[in-house]
Design brief:
With 607 residues, the chain is α+β, with helices and mostly antiparallel strands. It has 8 helices and 30 strands.
Length: 607
């Protein structure tokens, strides 16, 4: 027992002697000139330690720093690259003897970092590494890898009022990132510790403010880091932001396998504007290009509320005549991605077009984006799409296969293009390919082939039976006003195939059938100018009775040319009245022939 007492007394005496020695004979400020000279030789920078260095001793050993600054390279503005108001580091002394680290306090306050990039490309980082940095790093790394710690305990970490100024002289832009506070509560291995932060950023086109809190845990072997209950609220404001302000909130949990370099994130809830989502993300960052796998479930998305408002006609007219030439979008970033994404969306509304129940599988690898599957409900029908975008060249190429089945075409056209032209149940399929993603070039370069059929529908804007009846009446001299009837032609089926080249869709076999009419022909639709040019032939297969005609119509079985011109928005229909006139003359000639035949038969006694 006496031995233990003597041993404790000896340890305390040694600590006191060391403390007295360090306090009386060892002043850390004596080394300030040597530290400044070493930094100058290594980096060429000026290090200033304005405040006196001070020790703290038993039960903790630590040092207090203040008034520290490190200069930028000569000629840079601001002159200081780093300024620190106050830094404190304190470590418990006794646990060090048993290979345990107990940090009583780590705090940093009032740090300012000025990172400048000049017009000639030089930056604040130039020269910091020094010539011997690589050589010095090797033994240090080896030493740290051989060292083993039994435990780490941290009383707390606090970082406050830290600001990073990123200055680009060529662009004349300054971006300011401010970490108002970061705190880590009492921390020990294998135990959760609270964390919290408050952050803001000011950039040329937007401002960001964010705050969050949660808890983290580090495994004893330093291979697993877990973050639970992390909730982050962010506000982004700027002219380029939808509605000039976007508020987001996310709640998540993260696990990082530090030894395997793998990360998994479980997002319990994500709110951005009016959009809600949840999902999982996995990242393997051990490979040259990190591999990302994501699976998200998203609620209703109304892109119309997020997209910029369209300009008024007056503003458009006042816009300058000369416009900046369109350039290909830069998709080179796709080469640095290895992503697989599964996405389920309850509904999407864009440009007043509504779709529901999206299921999508997307892959991005080696500069190629593969949309292997996209299924959605579309106006009581189904949409099925597969597509690929190849961005390995400067001008991207693409190909796609699209099928639409059972879609109600009239509300679709009205919502998508404000066109009231067709009604019915539509089936549509098209395959295509092309180059360039500039909108105008996309239309010109697209090569596609497809087929469509529309059942139990109507052609709006024209009443073909009424047009025939009216033209026939006028040829007979009836100039009475036309009866007002709905401008609609019902049909049982409308079918055709088409090809698309140089922005023009060619339809060689348009065919429309109804109990009353037959219509067939060919034509073109110009996607660039929206011009229509169709030459069709219509014929009656039954009486116009019920459409204002007689029981047995003289025009039954007669082909009558019909032209469709104008635009998608305002189609124009015109009958060839010359054909009606020829038919009228033929009808009168046939009647005269019958009368002559009857007269001759009577004279010949019925023979």
């Amino acid at each position: 027992m006496k031995f233990i007492k003597w041993l404790l007394a000896l340890v305390v005496t040694l600590i006191l002697l060391v403390t007295v020695y360090l306090t009386v004979f060892f002043d850390p400020n004596d080394f300030k000139p040597e530290i400044v000279d070493a930094v100058k030789k290594q980096t060429g920078r000026e290090l200033v330690i304005a405040d006196d260095l001070s020790w703290t001793f038993f039960p903790v050993i630590g040092i207090n720093l203040g008034g520290v600054s490190l200069s930028n390279p000569e000629g840079f503005t601001p002159k200081a690259m780093l300024e620190v108001n106050k830094a404190v580091a304190e470590v418990a002394l006794m646990p060090l003897f048993s290979q345990q680290i107990e940090i009583a306090e780590l705090s940093l306050d009032g740090a300012t970092i000025n990172l400048v990039t000049r017009k000639n490309g030089t930056s604040s980082f130039d020269g910091l590494s020094g010539d011997n940095s690589k050589k010095a790093a090797t033994p240090a790394a080896e030493t740290s890898s051989n060292a083993k710690l039994n435990d780490i305990n941290i009383g707390g970490i606090s970082i406050t009022n830290t600001q990073i100024n990123m200055i680009d002289e060529a662009k004349k832009q300054t971006q300011v990132f401010t970490l108002k506070s970061f705190t880590l509560g009492e921390f020990a291995l294998e135990q959760f510790a609270p964390i919290a932060f408050e952050f803001s950023a000011t950039m040329p086109d937007m401002t960001v403010s964010s705050e969050g809190k949660g808890e983290l845990k580090l495994s004893r072997d330093f291979t697993q880091l877990v973050v639970n209950g992390l909730k982050i609220d962010t506000v982004v404001e700027g002219e380029s932001i939808p509605n000039k302000k976007l508020e987001t909130s996310i709640s998540l949990a993260t696990q990082i396998a530090l030894d395997k370099q793998q990360l998994s994130v479980d997002i319990a809830q994500l709110n951005a504007a009016s959009i809600t989502a949840a999902g999982k993300v996995g990242v393997n960052y051990a490979t040259k290009i990190p591999q990302i796998n994501a699976d998200f479930q998203v609620g209703d998305i109304d892109l119309d509320t997020l997209l910029p408002k369209t300009e008024t006609a007056a503003a458009t007219e006042q816009a300058p005549a000369a416009s900046t030439p369109a350039v290909e979008p830069d998709l080179s970033a796709l080469k640095q991605l290895d992503v697989k994404l599964k996405l389920a969306v309850k509904s999407i509304k864009v440009a007043n077009l509504s779709t529901q129940n999206w299921l999508m599988d997307v892959g991005i690898k080696n500069g190629v984006l593969d949309l292997t599957k996209l299924n959605a409900d579309l106006y009581q029908g189904k949409l099925l799409v597969s597509a690929q975008v190849d961005a390995r060249q400067a001008v991207a190429s693409y190909q796609f296969d699209k099928k639409v089945t059972g879609v109600q075409i009239r509300p679709l056209l009205k919502d998508a293009a404000d066109v009231d032209l067709l009604a019915g149940t539509a089936n549509f399929d098209v395959k295509g390919k092309g180059k360039s993603l500039i909108p105008e070039q996309l239309k010109k370069n697209l090569l596609a082939n497809g087929h469509f059929d529309i059942n139990d529908g109507a052609l709006y804007g024209v009443n073909i039976p009424q047009m025939i009846r009216s033209a026939q009446a006028k040829l007979k001299g009836d100039l009475s006003p036309e009866t007002k009837e709905e401008r609609k032609t019902d049909f049982s089926s409308l079918t055709g195939s088409f090809s698309l080249d140089n922005g023009v869709a060619t339809n060689p076999d348009l065919s429309m059938s109804s109990p009353l009419l037959r219509l067939a022909g060919k034509g073109t639709a110009n996607l660039l100018t929206e011009a229509l040019d169709y030459r069709l032939t219509t014929s009656l297969v039954n009486s116009l009775k019920g459409q204002g005609g007689s029981d047995k119509d003289a025009l039954a079985g007669i082909d009558i040319p019909l032209a469709i011109t104008g635009t998608f928005q305002k189609p124009e229909y015109a009958l060839d009245t010359k054909a009606l006139l020829n038919n009228q003359l033929k009808e009168e000639t046939d009647k005269a022939k019958e009368k002559l035949k009857d007269s001759l038969l009577k004279k010949l006694g019925g023979f």
